[in-house]
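Whether sequence alone determines local backbone shape is best considered at the level of individual chains. We regard such an encoding as a compact summary of how the chain folds. The sequence in question and its structure tokens are set out directly beneath this paragraph.
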Amino acid sequence: MIATAAFYVFAAVLLGSAALVVSARNPVHSVLFLILAFFNAAGLFLLAGAEFLAMILVIVYVGAVAVLFLFVVMMLDIDFTRMREGIQRYAPVGATVGVILLVELASVFGSWQLLPQSASLRGAVAPGAVSNTAALGDLLYTHNVLLFQLAGLVLLVAMIGAIVLTLRARKASRRQDISRQVAQRVEDTLVLVKVGLGAAVTEAEFQRPLPEPAVAAAEPHGGGHGHGGTHAAEVR
């Protein structure tokens, strides 16, 4: 009785939060409703006895993906007024795509048929010697290992595509010149001044950094960062 009531509560909150994800006007609120939907889906997994999937859903999706979405949306400077201007122009295309998806879902659910032995398997007791984690690992890495590797390859391609799309060449960025840093000599960057006992260092005796060679000055990037760069004079 309690499990049934918990199932309906989790399912109702999950459906409501999923609807609010796509209907909320503020993207930050949409991400927060998405996190709520993930938590309720994890609760449904717990009720079904799949505690490993529930923990993975909370740790990976809520702890990493949804939080990443939240920070990205909060850091982006989104012009909502400009976004709403193109709604009417793209409304026919969106309606067409929605109708196509609705027809596809209707065809899938209309042709769905259960196996004759599904009723008997529903009440079958799972073997006690095999845990959910071991059964899931055997299913993924033994029977469907090729599909699992293919899914990883698709994610790798998506990650490389995201890096390529967001990579921007910055001309004003300074980079290290390792060969110049290694070839740097102490005489070119440091001057030792011997000060007598009890004597003070005046402004005239204070040594400024030595000027860089003409070849180094002509380069767009120098060895100022890292080891071997130009330093101020050391007074002893």
